[in-house]
Amino acid sequence: MKIRKRLRVSYILMLLVPMVLIMLTGAMFRDQYENGSDWIEFPKGFLSELYSIIAADPDSLLESGTLEELSRLSGFDGINIAVYQAEQETATFPSISRHSHGRHLTSSWKFYFSDGTSGQLSVFVYDRSMIKGFFPLGGLFFLFVVAALILTNGVLSYFVAGSILKPLSALKAAAHRIKNEDLDSPIVYEGKDEFAGLCSAFEEMRLRLKSSVLEQVKTEENRKELIASISHDLKTPITTIKGYVEGIKDGIADSPEKIEKYIDTVYAKSIMMDELIDSLFLFSKLDLNKVQFNFQNVDLSMFLSDICDEMRFDYPELEISLDAGSGAEVKADRMHLHRVISNLIDNAVKYRSEKKPGVEIKLSRAESFAVIELRDNGKGIAADEFSHIFDHFYRADPARTTTEEGSGLGLAISKYIIEAHGGSIKAEGQPGLGTKITFTLRIAL
Ligand code: ATP
Ligand code: MG
Protein backbone atom coordinates (compact mmCIF):
# COMPACT_ATOMS: atom_id res chain seq x y z
CA MET A 1 0.00 0.00 0.00
CA LYS A 2 1.30 3.48 -0.80
CA ILE A 3 2.23 5.60 2.20
CA ARG A 4 -0.15 8.34 1.09
CA LYS A 5 -3.03 5.85 1.03
CA ARG A 6 -1.90 4.30 4.28
CA LEU A 7 -1.99 7.74 5.94
CA ARG A 8 -5.47 8.45 4.62
CA VAL A 9 -6.83 5.12 5.78
CA SER A 10 -5.17 5.69 9.11
CA TYR A 11 -6.75 9.13 9.54
CA ILE A 12 -10.19 7.78 8.75
CA LEU A 13 -9.72 4.88 11.17
CA MET A 14 -8.44 7.25 13.84
CA LEU A 15 -11.81 8.97 13.69
CA LEU A 16 -14.00 5.92 13.18
CA VAL A 17 -12.53 3.50 15.69
CA PRO A 18 -12.81 5.75 18.76
CA MET A 19 -16.32 6.74 17.67
CA VAL A 20 -17.39 3.11 17.48
CA LEU A 21 -15.65 2.28 20.76
CA ILE A 22 -17.29 5.23 22.49
CA MET A 23 -20.68 4.24 21.16
CA LEU A 24 -20.15 0.69 22.40
CA THR A 25 -19.14 1.83 25.88
CA GLY A 26 -22.10 4.20 25.91
CA ALA A 27 -24.43 1.31 25.09
CA MET A 28 -22.79 -0.79 27.79
CA PHE A 29 -23.40 1.87 30.40
CA ARG A 30 -26.95 2.44 29.30
CA ASP A 31 -27.58 -1.26 29.69
CA GLN A 32 -26.19 -1.19 33.16
CA TYR A 33 -28.35 1.81 33.94
CA GLU A 34 -31.52 0.17 32.67
CA ASN A 35 -30.95 -3.02 34.60
CA GLY A 36 -30.59 -1.06 37.77
CA SER A 37 -27.36 -0.68 39.57
CA ASP A 38 -25.51 1.64 41.83
CA TRP A 39 -26.13 5.00 40.37
CA ILE A 40 -26.76 5.83 43.90
CA GLU A 41 -25.25 3.44 46.35
CA PHE A 42 -28.01 1.34 47.90
CA PRO A 43 -27.26 -0.61 51.06
CA LYS A 44 -27.01 -4.38 50.75
CA GLY A 45 -30.20 -4.86 52.77
CA PHE A 46 -32.19 -2.83 50.27
CA LEU A 47 -30.97 -4.78 47.29
CA SER A 48 -31.37 -8.23 48.83
CA GLU A 49 -34.88 -7.37 50.01
CA LEU A 50 -35.79 -6.03 46.56
CA TYR A 51 -34.41 -9.10 44.77
CA SER A 52 -36.17 -11.50 47.08
CA ILE A 53 -39.49 -9.68 46.62
CA ILE A 54 -39.08 -9.72 42.83
CA ALA A 55 -38.32 -13.44 42.97
CA ALA A 56 -40.97 -14.50 45.47
CA ASP A 57 -43.87 -12.08 45.31
CA PRO A 58 -43.59 -9.35 42.69
CA ASP A 59 -47.24 -8.49 43.01
CA SER A 60 -46.62 -7.17 46.53
CA LEU A 61 -44.65 -4.31 44.99
CA LEU A 62 -47.97 -2.74 44.13
CA GLU A 63 -48.70 -2.34 47.85
CA SER A 64 -47.57 0.95 49.31
CA GLY A 65 -46.46 -0.80 52.54
CA THR A 66 -43.82 -2.76 50.61
CA LEU A 67 -42.60 0.37 48.89
CA GLU A 68 -42.44 2.22 52.19
CA GLU A 69 -40.37 -0.62 53.68
CA LEU A 70 -37.99 -0.49 50.64
CA SER A 71 -37.72 3.28 50.96
CA ARG A 72 -36.76 2.84 54.59
CA LEU A 73 -34.20 0.14 53.74
CA SER A 74 -32.62 2.39 51.11
CA GLY A 75 -31.48 4.75 53.85
CA PHE A 76 -32.17 7.78 51.71
CA ASP A 77 -34.52 10.61 52.54
CA GLY A 78 -36.51 12.18 49.81
CA ILE A 79 -36.45 9.42 47.27
CA ASN A 80 -39.44 8.44 45.24
CA ILE A 81 -40.13 4.82 44.30
CA ALA A 82 -42.51 4.09 41.45
CA VAL A 83 -43.77 0.75 40.17
CA TYR A 84 -44.99 0.36 36.62
CA GLN A 85 -47.25 -2.35 35.39
CA ALA A 86 -47.41 -2.72 31.62
CA GLU A 87 -45.70 0.64 31.34
CA GLN A 88 -48.25 2.40 33.51
CA GLU A 89 -47.22 3.98 36.78
CA THR A 90 -49.39 1.97 39.09
CA ALA A 91 -47.93 2.48 42.57
CA THR A 92 -45.80 5.25 44.01
CA PHE A 93 -44.23 5.92 47.37
CA PRO A 94 -44.63 8.47 48.80
CA SER A 95 -48.10 7.87 47.47
CA ILE A 96 -48.73 11.44 46.37
CA SER A 97 -45.64 12.46 44.51
CA ARG A 98 -44.64 15.95 45.44
CA HIS A 99 -43.92 17.08 41.94
CA SER A 100 -43.52 14.16 39.70
CA HIS A 101 -41.82 16.15 36.94
CA GLY A 102 -38.96 17.47 39.09
CA ARG A 103 -37.62 14.02 39.86
CA HIS A 104 -34.54 12.38 38.33
CA LEU A 105 -34.42 8.73 37.52
CA THR A 106 -31.48 6.96 39.10
CA SER A 107 -32.07 3.20 38.89
CA SER A 108 -34.62 0.78 37.50
CA TRP A 109 -35.19 -2.94 37.80
CA LYS A 110 -37.31 -4.95 35.38
CA PHE A 111 -39.37 -7.95 36.36
CA TYR A 112 -42.65 -9.73 35.61
CA PHE A 113 -45.79 -9.77 37.64
CA SER A 114 -47.38 -13.12 38.42
CA ASP A 115 -49.90 -12.64 35.62
CA GLY A 116 -47.02 -12.24 33.15
CA THR A 117 -47.36 -8.48 32.58
CA SER A 118 -44.08 -6.58 32.50
CA GLY A 119 -43.11 -4.65 35.57
CA GLN A 120 -40.55 -2.07 36.45
CA LEU A 121 -39.47 -0.52 39.70
CA SER A 122 -37.76 2.84 39.46
CA VAL A 123 -36.08 4.95 42.09
CA PHE A 124 -36.12 8.73 41.60
CA VAL A 125 -34.37 11.53 43.47
CA TYR A 126 -35.33 15.20 43.60
CA ASP A 127 -31.89 16.39 44.47
CA ARG A 128 -29.31 15.72 41.77
CA SER A 129 -26.43 15.91 44.21
CA MET A 130 -27.68 12.66 45.71
CA ILE A 131 -26.66 10.82 42.57
CA LYS A 132 -23.27 9.66 43.80
CA GLY A 133 -22.86 7.15 41.06
CA PHE A 134 -22.81 9.76 38.40
CA PHE A 135 -19.32 11.00 38.92
CA PRO A 136 -17.51 7.66 39.15
CA LEU A 137 -19.48 6.46 36.21
CA GLY A 138 -18.54 9.59 34.21
CA GLY A 139 -14.93 9.05 35.21
CA LEU A 140 -15.02 5.48 34.03
CA PHE A 141 -16.63 6.54 30.81
CA PHE A 142 -13.97 9.19 30.37
CA LEU A 143 -11.28 6.56 30.99
CA PHE A 144 -12.82 4.35 28.34
CA VAL A 145 -12.75 7.20 25.84
CA VAL A 146 -9.10 7.96 26.59
CA ALA A 147 -8.23 4.27 26.38
CA ALA A 148 -10.02 4.01 23.04
CA LEU A 149 -8.09 6.99 21.70
CA ILE A 150 -4.73 5.73 22.95
CA LEU A 151 -5.36 2.26 21.61
CA THR A 152 -6.45 3.50 18.20
CA ASN A 153 -3.60 5.94 17.88
CA GLY A 154 -1.07 3.38 19.04
CA VAL A 155 -2.15 0.68 16.65
CA LEU A 156 -2.48 3.03 13.68
CA SER A 157 0.78 4.82 14.34
CA TYR A 158 2.51 1.46 14.47
CA PHE A 159 0.83 0.52 11.19
CA VAL A 160 1.97 3.74 9.47
CA ALA A 161 5.35 4.13 11.15
CA GLY A 162 6.26 0.53 10.37
CA SER A 163 5.93 1.20 6.68
CA ILE A 164 8.20 4.25 6.92
CA LEU A 165 10.73 3.12 9.49
CA LYS A 166 11.51 -0.27 7.96
CA PRO A 167 12.64 0.96 4.53
CA LEU A 168 14.25 3.96 6.19
CA SER A 169 16.43 1.77 8.36
CA ALA A 170 17.25 -0.41 5.34
CA LEU A 171 18.35 2.73 3.48
CA LYS A 172 20.34 3.90 6.47
CA ALA A 173 22.15 0.58 6.62
CA ALA A 174 22.84 0.75 2.89
CA ALA A 175 24.20 4.29 3.14
CA HIS A 176 26.39 3.14 5.99
CA ARG A 177 27.74 0.26 3.91
CA ILE A 178 28.50 2.58 1.01
CA LYS A 179 30.25 4.97 3.38
CA ASN A 180 32.42 2.07 4.48
CA GLU A 181 33.28 1.38 0.84
CA ASP A 182 31.25 -1.80 0.65
CA LEU A 183 29.79 -1.41 -2.83
CA ASP A 184 28.97 -5.06 -3.37
CA SER A 185 25.79 -5.53 -1.33
CA PRO A 186 22.70 -4.70 -3.38
CA ILE A 187 19.87 -2.63 -1.89
CA VAL A 188 16.69 -4.66 -2.22
CA TYR A 189 13.27 -3.37 -1.24
CA GLU A 190 10.21 -5.41 -2.04
CA GLY A 191 7.55 -2.84 -1.14
CA LYS A 192 5.54 -1.04 -3.81
CA ASP A 193 5.25 2.35 -2.08
CA GLU A 194 7.15 5.61 -2.52
CA PHE A 195 10.26 4.03 -1.03
CA ALA A 196 10.54 1.61 -3.93
CA GLY A 197 11.62 4.48 -6.22
CA LEU A 198 14.01 5.85 -3.64
CA CYS A 199 15.57 2.44 -3.05
CA SER A 200 15.98 1.75 -6.74
CA ALA A 201 17.58 5.18 -7.24
CA PHE A 202 19.92 4.33 -4.39
CA GLU A 203 20.71 0.98 -5.97
CA GLU A 204 21.47 2.67 -9.27
CA MET A 205 23.75 5.11 -7.48
CA ARG A 206 25.57 2.18 -5.86
CA LEU A 207 26.07 0.49 -9.24
CA ARG A 208 27.38 3.69 -10.82
CA LEU A 209 29.69 4.34 -7.92
CA LYS A 210 30.96 0.79 -8.15
CA SER A 211 31.61 1.00 -11.86
CA SER A 212 33.34 4.36 -11.47
CA VAL A 213 35.54 2.95 -8.72
CA LEU A 214 36.42 -0.03 -10.93
CA GLU A 215 37.08 2.32 -13.81
CA GLN A 216 39.35 4.38 -11.59
CA VAL A 217 41.28 1.29 -10.50
CA LYS A 218 41.67 0.26 -14.14
CA THR A 219 42.84 3.70 -15.20
CA GLU A 220 45.30 3.74 -12.35
CA GLU A 221 46.66 0.33 -13.37
CA ASN A 222 46.88 1.48 -16.97
CA ARG A 223 48.83 4.51 -15.93
CA LYS A 224 51.27 2.45 -13.89
CA GLU A 225 51.77 0.07 -16.80
CA LEU A 226 52.32 2.98 -19.14
CA ILE A 227 55.00 4.45 -16.90
CA ALA A 228 56.69 1.06 -16.59
CA SER A 229 56.68 0.63 -20.39
CA ILE A 230 57.99 4.12 -21.03
CA SER A 231 60.79 3.67 -18.52
CA HIS A 232 61.70 0.35 -20.03
CA ASP A 233 61.61 1.59 -23.60
CA LEU A 234 63.74 4.64 -22.80
CA LYS A 235 66.15 2.70 -20.65
CA THR A 236 67.09 0.17 -23.36
CA PRO A 237 68.52 2.55 -26.00
CA ILE A 238 70.14 4.69 -23.29
CA THR A 239 71.95 1.63 -21.95
CA THR A 240 73.21 0.85 -25.44
CA ILE A 241 74.33 4.43 -26.03
CA LYS A 242 76.10 4.46 -22.68
CA GLY A 243 77.85 1.18 -23.50
CA TYR A 244 79.11 2.38 -26.87
CA VAL A 245 80.24 5.78 -25.51
CA GLU A 246 82.15 4.00 -22.73
CA GLY A 247 83.70 1.74 -25.38
CA ILE A 248 85.00 4.80 -27.15
CA LYS A 249 86.20 6.46 -23.93
CA ASP A 250 87.96 3.37 -22.60
CA GLY A 251 89.71 2.82 -25.90
CA ILE A 252 87.92 -0.45 -26.73
CA ALA A 253 87.14 1.13 -30.08
CA ASP A 254 90.75 1.41 -31.03
CA SER A 255 90.61 2.01 -34.75
CA PRO A 256 89.00 4.89 -36.63
CA GLU A 257 86.68 2.37 -38.37
CA LYS A 258 85.54 0.96 -35.04
CA ILE A 259 85.03 4.43 -33.61
CA GLU A 260 82.95 5.36 -36.62
CA LYS A 261 80.86 2.18 -36.24
CA TYR A 262 80.29 2.96 -32.57
CA ILE A 263 79.32 6.53 -33.33
CA ASP A 264 76.90 5.33 -36.04
CA THR A 265 75.24 3.01 -33.53
CA VAL A 266 74.96 5.80 -30.96
CA TYR A 267 73.47 8.04 -33.64
CA ALA A 268 70.97 5.39 -34.75
CA LYS A 269 69.89 4.77 -31.15
CA SER A 270 69.50 8.52 -30.59
CA ILE A 271 67.25 8.77 -33.64
CA MET A 272 65.18 5.85 -32.31
CA MET A 273 64.84 7.55 -28.97
CA ASP A 274 63.88 10.78 -30.63
CA GLU A 275 61.16 9.01 -32.60
CA LEU A 276 59.97 7.18 -29.53
CA ILE A 277 59.71 10.43 -27.59
CA ASP A 278 57.84 12.04 -30.51
CA SER A 279 55.38 9.13 -30.55
CA LEU A 280 54.98 9.28 -26.81
CA PHE A 281 54.39 12.98 -26.94
CA LEU A 282 51.74 12.59 -29.64
CA PHE A 283 50.17 9.69 -27.81
CA SER A 284 49.88 11.58 -24.55
CA LYS A 285 48.48 14.62 -26.34
CA LEU A 286 45.88 12.42 -28.02
CA ASP A 287 45.17 10.79 -24.68
CA LEU A 288 44.57 14.20 -23.11
CA ASN A 289 42.44 15.32 -26.06
CA LYS A 290 44.93 18.11 -26.67
CA VAL A 291 45.43 17.48 -30.36
CA GLN A 292 43.81 19.95 -32.73
CA PHE A 293 42.35 18.32 -35.81
CA ASN A 294 42.09 20.27 -38.98
CA PHE A 295 39.22 18.56 -40.77
CA GLN A 296 39.00 19.07 -44.51
CA ASN A 297 37.30 17.39 -47.41
CA VAL A 298 39.74 14.77 -48.68
CA ASP A 299 39.37 12.89 -51.97
CA LEU A 300 40.42 9.45 -50.76
CA SER A 301 41.33 7.89 -54.13
CA MET A 302 43.76 10.71 -54.83
CA PHE A 303 45.07 10.77 -51.29
CA LEU A 304 45.68 7.00 -51.23
CA SER A 305 47.32 6.96 -54.62
CA ASP A 306 49.75 9.69 -53.49
CA ILE A 307 50.64 7.64 -50.41
CA CYS A 308 51.19 4.55 -52.59
CA ASP A 309 53.68 6.49 -54.75
CA GLU A 310 55.47 7.72 -51.66
CA MET A 311 55.69 4.20 -50.21
CA ARG A 312 57.02 2.76 -53.45
CA PHE A 313 59.80 5.33 -53.16
CA ASP A 314 60.49 4.56 -49.46
CA TYR A 315 60.36 0.76 -49.86
CA PRO A 316 61.55 -0.13 -53.36
CA GLU A 317 60.89 -3.89 -52.81
CA LEU A 318 57.25 -3.27 -51.67
CA GLU A 319 54.49 -4.25 -54.06
CA ILE A 320 51.57 -2.00 -53.44
CA SER A 321 48.26 -1.84 -55.32
CA LEU A 322 45.18 0.35 -54.96
CA ASP A 323 41.56 -0.42 -55.87
CA ALA A 324 39.80 2.91 -55.29
CA GLY A 325 36.39 1.67 -56.54
CA SER A 326 34.04 4.58 -57.17
CA GLY A 327 36.12 6.78 -54.85
CA ALA A 328 34.95 8.68 -51.79
CA GLU A 329 35.29 12.12 -50.31
CA VAL A 330 35.70 12.15 -46.53
CA LYS A 331 36.18 14.68 -43.76
CA ALA A 332 39.70 14.15 -42.44
CA ASP A 333 42.84 15.76 -41.10
CA ARG A 334 45.38 15.10 -43.88
CA MET A 335 48.46 15.02 -41.69
CA HIS A 336 47.02 12.62 -39.13
CA LEU A 337 45.39 10.39 -41.74
CA HIS A 338 48.75 10.18 -43.48
CA ARG A 339 50.34 9.09 -40.21
CA VAL A 340 47.77 6.29 -39.81
CA ILE A 341 48.16 4.87 -43.29
CA SER A 342 51.94 5.10 -43.36
CA ASN A 343 52.11 3.33 -39.98
CA LEU A 344 49.92 0.53 -41.34
CA ILE A 345 52.07 0.12 -44.44
CA ASP A 346 55.16 0.40 -42.24
CA ASN A 347 53.87 -2.50 -40.16
CA ALA A 348 53.18 -4.56 -43.29
CA VAL A 349 56.81 -4.14 -44.31
CA LYS A 350 58.20 -4.53 -40.80
CA TYR A 351 56.23 -7.70 -39.99
CA ARG A 352 56.73 -9.30 -43.40
CA SER A 353 57.09 -13.01 -44.02
CA GLU A 354 59.88 -14.48 -46.09
CA LYS A 355 58.03 -13.32 -49.20
CA LYS A 356 58.48 -9.97 -50.88
CA PRO A 357 56.25 -7.58 -48.92
CA GLY A 358 52.95 -6.74 -50.60
CA VAL A 359 49.99 -4.54 -49.67
CA GLU A 360 46.59 -4.34 -51.37
CA ILE A 361 44.49 -1.28 -50.55
CA LYS A 362 40.78 -1.35 -51.30
CA LEU A 363 38.36 1.54 -50.96
CA SER A 364 34.58 1.01 -50.76
CA ARG A 365 31.51 2.57 -49.17
CA ALA A 366 29.06 1.37 -46.54
CA GLU A 367 26.19 3.75 -45.82
CA SER A 368 27.66 7.07 -44.65
CA PHE A 369 31.18 5.67 -44.28
CA ALA A 370 34.12 5.07 -46.54
CA VAL A 371 35.75 1.70 -45.78
CA ILE A 372 39.52 1.35 -46.30
CA GLU A 373 41.03 -2.15 -46.24
CA LEU A 374 44.76 -2.85 -46.14
CA ARG A 375 45.66 -6.46 -46.74
CA ASP A 376 49.29 -7.58 -46.45
CA ASN A 377 51.11 -10.85 -47.04
CA GLY A 378 53.15 -10.63 -43.84
CA LYS A 379 53.55 -13.09 -41.00
CA GLY A 380 50.08 -12.39 -39.60
CA ILE A 381 48.83 -11.99 -36.05
CA ALA A 382 47.74 -14.78 -33.69
CA ALA A 383 44.01 -14.86 -32.87
CA ASP A 384 44.54 -14.08 -29.18
CA GLU A 385 46.49 -10.96 -30.03
CA PHE A 386 43.92 -9.05 -32.08
CA SER A 387 42.35 -7.64 -28.95
CA HIS A 388 45.69 -6.23 -27.77
CA ILE A 389 47.51 -4.84 -30.77
CA PHE A 390 45.68 -1.51 -30.44
CA ASP A 391 46.84 -1.15 -26.82
CA HIS A 392 49.76 1.15 -26.21
CA PHE A 393 53.18 -0.51 -26.03
CA TYR A 394 51.78 -3.83 -27.13
CA ARG A 395 54.11 -5.85 -29.30
CA ALA A 396 53.08 -9.27 -30.49
CA ASP A 397 56.67 -10.31 -30.07
CA PRO A 398 56.93 -11.07 -26.36
CA ALA A 399 60.69 -10.45 -26.36
CA ARG A 400 60.55 -6.92 -25.11
CA THR A 401 64.27 -6.64 -24.87
CA THR A 402 64.69 -5.03 -28.24
CA THR A 403 62.97 -1.90 -29.36
CA GLU A 404 64.41 -2.38 -32.82
CA GLU A 405 61.10 -3.08 -34.45
CA GLY A 406 59.07 -0.29 -32.96
CA SER A 407 57.60 1.28 -29.85
CA GLY A 408 54.24 -0.47 -29.92
CA LEU A 409 52.53 2.92 -30.08
CA GLY A 410 51.74 3.04 -33.82
CA LEU A 411 48.40 1.22 -33.74
CA ALA A 412 47.34 2.85 -30.45
CA ILE A 413 47.91 6.27 -32.03
CA SER A 414 46.14 5.18 -35.23
CA LYS A 415 43.11 4.06 -33.23
CA TYR A 416 42.93 7.37 -31.38
CA ILE A 417 43.14 9.28 -34.65
CA ILE A 418 40.51 7.19 -36.46
CA GLU A 419 38.15 7.43 -33.51
CA ALA A 420 38.65 11.19 -33.35
CA HIS A 421 37.41 11.19 -36.97
CA GLY A 422 34.25 9.34 -35.88
CA GLY A 423 35.39 6.09 -37.49
CA SER A 424 36.53 2.69 -36.22
CA ILE A 425 39.46 0.36 -36.85
CA LYS A 426 39.88 -3.41 -36.57
CA ALA A 427 42.32 -6.16 -37.51
CA GLU A 428 41.73 -9.62 -38.96
CA GLY A 429 43.86 -12.38 -40.39
CA GLN A 430 45.71 -15.54 -39.60
CA PRO A 431 49.33 -16.28 -38.76
CA GLY A 432 51.11 -17.16 -42.00
CA LEU A 433 48.34 -15.73 -44.15
CA GLY A 434 48.85 -12.04 -43.59
CA THR A 435 46.84 -9.37 -41.87
CA LYS A 436 43.88 -7.25 -42.92
CA ILE A 437 43.35 -3.92 -41.21
CA THR A 438 40.01 -2.20 -41.90
CA PHE A 439 39.06 1.29 -40.90
CA THR A 440 36.20 3.63 -41.67
CA LEU A 441 35.88 7.39 -42.18
CA ARG A 442 32.75 9.48 -42.37
CA ILE A 443 31.82 10.54 -45.90
CA ALA A 444 31.82 14.34 -46.36
CA LEU A 445 28.36 15.76 -46.94
P1 ATP B 1 55.59 1.67 -33.93
O1 ATP B 1 54.48 1.57 -34.91
O2 ATP B 1 55.28 2.65 -32.83
O3 ATP B 1 56.91 1.88 -34.52
P2 ATP B 1 55.04 -1.11 -33.55
O4 ATP B 1 54.95 -1.28 -35.01
O5 ATP B 1 55.70 -2.19 -32.77
O6 ATP B 1 55.66 0.27 -33.13
P3 ATP B 1 52.18 -1.06 -33.62
O7 ATP B 1 52.16 -0.49 -34.96
O8 ATP B 1 51.20 -0.51 -32.63
O9 ATP B 1 53.58 -1.00 -32.93
O10 ATP B 1 51.90 -2.61 -33.69
C1 ATP B 1 51.73 -3.39 -32.53
C2 ATP B 1 52.11 -4.82 -32.73
O11 ATP B 1 51.15 -5.46 -33.58
C3 ATP B 1 53.42 -4.98 -33.44
O12 ATP B 1 54.47 -5.01 -32.50
C4 ATP B 1 53.27 -6.30 -34.16
O13 ATP B 1 53.63 -7.35 -33.33
C5 ATP B 1 51.80 -6.40 -34.44
N1 ATP B 1 51.46 -6.00 -35.82
C6 ATP B 1 51.03 -4.80 -36.24
N2 ATP B 1 50.79 -4.79 -37.57
C7 ATP B 1 51.12 -6.02 -38.02
C8 ATP B 1 51.10 -6.65 -39.33
N3 ATP B 1 50.71 -5.97 -40.42
N4 ATP B 1 51.49 -7.94 -39.40
C9 ATP B 1 51.88 -8.60 -38.30
N5 ATP B 1 51.92 -8.08 -37.06
C10 ATP B 1 51.56 -6.81 -36.91
MG1 MG C 1 53.85 0.18 -36.20
Description:
Among the domains are: 214-287, Helix Hairpins (Orthogonal Bundle), CATH 1.10.287.130; 296-442, Histidine kinase-like ATPase, C-terminal domain (Heat Shock Protein 90, 2-Layer Sandwich). The protein has nine helices and eleven strands. The protein has helices at 3-34, 44-56, 64-74, 134-179, 194-249, 256-287, 300-314, 334-350, 410-420, and strands spanning 79-85, 88-93, 104-112, 118-125, 296-299, 319-323, 329-332, 358-366, 369-376, 425-429, 435-442. The longest helix is centred in the middle third of the chain and has 56 residues, at 194-249. The protein is rod-shaped and about 160 Å long. The relative contact order is 0.07. Bound molecules: adenosine-5'-triphosphate and magnesium ion. Residues 279, 343, 347-348, 350-351, 376, 378-381, 389, 394-397, 405-412, 435 line the site of adenosine-5'-triphosphate.
Architecture (CATH level 2) name of the domain at 296-442: 2-Layer Sandwich
Query: Which segments are poorly predicted (pLDDT under 50) over 5 or more consecutive residues?
Result: 34-38
In total, the number of strands is 11
Radius of gyration: 53 Å
Find the structural class using helix and strand composition.
alpha+beta
How much of the polypeptide forms β-strand, as a percent range? 15-25%
Question: What is the element string, with H for helices and E for strands?
Answer: HHHEEEEHHHEHEEHEEHEE
Distance between the termini: 57 Å
